[in-house]
Specification:
The chain is globular. Strands 1, 2, 3, 4, 5, 6 and 7 form a 7-stranded mixed sheet that branches. A hairpin with a 2-residue loop joins β3 (66-76) and β4. It starts with a strand and ends in a 6-residue tail after the last helix. The chain is an alpha/beta fold and 194 residues long. The protein contains 7 helices and 7 strands, in the order βαβααββαββαβαα. The model has no long low-confidence stretch (mean pLDDT 95).
C-alpha cells in the first residue's frame, strides 16, 4: 500500500523512518493561516483540522494512496503561536514563554481520497524556566535557523531541552507526531505488520 506523509517536517520524516514505516513524503502546500482564521474550536480540534487539510491537499493529487496529515499547535497563556517569521520574532516568542506553561497539541489524520479513515490529537504540557535575554540570544545563536520551522521555537532532541523545568506528556507528541496511536492505526490498515 502506498503511504504518503503530507509534511515537509524533517523530524516527522525521521520519526516514521526510525519506526520502520514505509512511506514517501510530499509538501502539502496549504494556507494554514486561512484554516486557523476560520476555526473557532479547541486546540485539539484545530490541530486535527490542520492535519486533515494537509492530508486532503496531498490526497487530491494521489487519491489511491493512504495519506498522513499532521500538525502541532502551541498555546501559552491562552494565546496560540505560529512558527516565528524570523529570528527577532523567535526571540520575542521565547521572552513571552519565559516562566510560563506551554500547552503543545499534536494531531495526525489518515485519509484516502476524501475519506477520513482515522484522526487523533494528544496534548503535552511544558513548563518553561525563567529565561534571561542573554540565554535567549545564546540559544538562538546555536539553534537558528533549525528552530525556524518549530512552532515552539525548540527542538527537544537538541538544545531545546534546556528551556524547560518540567515536561508532562508523550515524547512523540512533543516532537510533533502522536506516533504510537498512528502506528496502531497503520497496523489496523495493514500498512505495518501486526
Amino acid at each position: 500500500m502506498d503511504l504518503l506523509l503530507a509534511s515537509t517536517s524533517p523530524i516527522r520524516r525521521t520519526l516514521l523512518t526510525n519506526a520502520g514505516v514505509p512511506f514517501r513524503w510530499e509538501a502539502p502546500k496549504v494556507d494554514e493561516d486561512r484554516v486557523k482564521a476560520h476555526h473557532r474550536g479547541s486546540d485539539s480540534d484545530l490541530a486535527v483540522a490542520l492535519a486533515k487539510t494537509k492530508a486532503l491537499a496531498v490526497s487530491a493529487r494521489h487519491p489511491a494512496s493512504l495519506v498522513i496529515g499532521s500538525d502541532s499547535l502551541v498555546s501559552v497563556a491562552g494565546r496560540r503561536f505560529s512558527k516565528p517569521a524570523d529570528r527577532a520574532e523567535a526571540a520575542e516568542h521565547l521572552q513571552f514563554f519565559s516562566g510560563r506553561e506551554m500547552v503543545l497539541t499534536s494531531a495526525a489524520a489518515l485519509l484516502r481520497g476524501n475519506d477520513v479513515q482515522w484522526q487523533h490529537a494528544s496534548t503535552a504540557t511544558m513548563q518553561f524556566r525563567a529565561l534571561t535575554a542573554e540565554f535567549i540570544e545564546a540559544y538562538l545563536s546555536a539553534e537558528w535557523p533549525e528552530v525556524a520551522y518549530c512552532v515552539g521555537v525548540f527542538r527537544l532532541e537538541a538544545r531545546g531541552v534546556q528551556l524547560f523545568n518540567r515536561i508532562e506528556g508523550d515524547h512523540f507528541t512533543i516532537l510533533g507526531l502522536p506516533l504510537l496511536p498512528l502506528l496502531a492505526a497503520l497496523r489496523e490498515r495493514g500498512v505495518m505488520p501486526t
